[in-house]
């Protein structure tokens, strides 16, 4: 096994797995100790689906906004993976939604920009999700405590996966790209 693959597995074990376990553990604690009823469990699952789609949209928007700040327009926006439906065409930019609504990618027109700008564009997705998580924590009312914590945990899991996770085959995660860009001088 090459060292890169080993590093990825290590990152998954140290970051994504603990995050996911805390999330699942917290849910089980709430469900069992505080006796959630069936409708609450159902709403939790529905909310999770909505959160996955919302996170993916917010994340990809962060990349697009950072790109536009540097005058680099996107050439293709994909939210989610897997078999995709074409949502709309924004100017010359096709926007599509994959059936697996987690993650996605933005392709930009190739323009000569600095390495720092490229890093900011890759980091823009995670930055947008972090802002959204902070907003959610402050604006979702306290009596909706379950939804509030669920939202922040789901976003934290996505952020960790984006920074430290392993992208699907032939794709780079934001973290992979940022580490790659930081590696050369
Ligand atoms: Zn991204």
From TrEMBL:
The chain crosses the membrane at residues 12-29, 41-58, 119-140, 146-165. It is a multi-pass membrane protein. Its cofactor is Zn(2+). It comes from the Bacteria. The keyword tRNA-binding does not apply. Residues 44-140 form the Peptidase M50 domain. One of its GO terms (biological process) is proteolysis. It is found in: Membrane. One of its GO terms (cellular component) is membrane. Keywords: Membrane, Plasmid, Transmembrane, Transmembrane helix. Its main location: membrane. Belongs to the peptidase M50B family. This is Peptidase M50 domain-containing protein. It comes from Ralstonia insidiosa. The lineage of its organism: Bacteria, Pseudomonadati, Pseudomonadota, Betaproteobacteria, Burkholderiales.
């Amino acid at each position: 096994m090459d060292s890169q693959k080993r590093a990825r597995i290590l990152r998954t074990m140290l970051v994504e797995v603990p995050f996911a376990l805390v999330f699942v553990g917290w849910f089980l604690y709430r469900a069992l100790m505080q006796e959630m009823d069936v409708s609450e469990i159902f709403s939790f699952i529905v909310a999770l689906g909505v959160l996955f789609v919302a996170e993916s949209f917010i994340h990809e928007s962060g990349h697009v906004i950072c790109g536009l700040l540097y005058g680099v327009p996107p050439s293709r926006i994909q939210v989610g993976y897997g078999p995709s439906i074409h949502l709309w065409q924004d100017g010359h930019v096709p926007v599509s939604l994959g059936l697996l609504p987690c993650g996605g990618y933005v392709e930009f027109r190739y323009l000569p920009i600095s390495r720092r700008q490229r890093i900011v564009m890759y980091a823009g997705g995670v930055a947008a999700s972090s802002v959204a998580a902070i907003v959610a924590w402050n604006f979702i009312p306290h009596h909706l405590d379950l939804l509030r914590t669920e939202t922040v945990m789901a976003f934290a899991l996505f952020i960790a996966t984006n920074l430290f996770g392993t992208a699907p085959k032939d794709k780079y995660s934001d973290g992979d790209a940022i580490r790659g860009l930081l590696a050369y001088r």
